[in-house]
Amino acid sequence: MKTLIVHAHPEPKSLNSSLKNLAVSTLENAGHEVQVSDLYAMKWKAVVDAADYGPHASSPLQVARDSGRAFDAGTLTPDVRTEQEKLLWADTIIFQFPLWWYTMPAILKGWVDRVFTFHFAYGVGEHSDTKYGERFGEGTLAGRRALLSVTAGGAEPHYAARGINGPIDDLLFPIQHGILHYPGIEVLPPFVLYGTDRMTDEDYPDVAKAWEQRLLTLESTEPISFRRQNFGDYEIPSLHLREGLEPVGRTGFGLHVRG
Question: Interior CA angle at 13 toward 11 and 17, to 5°?
Answer without folding.
Answer: 75
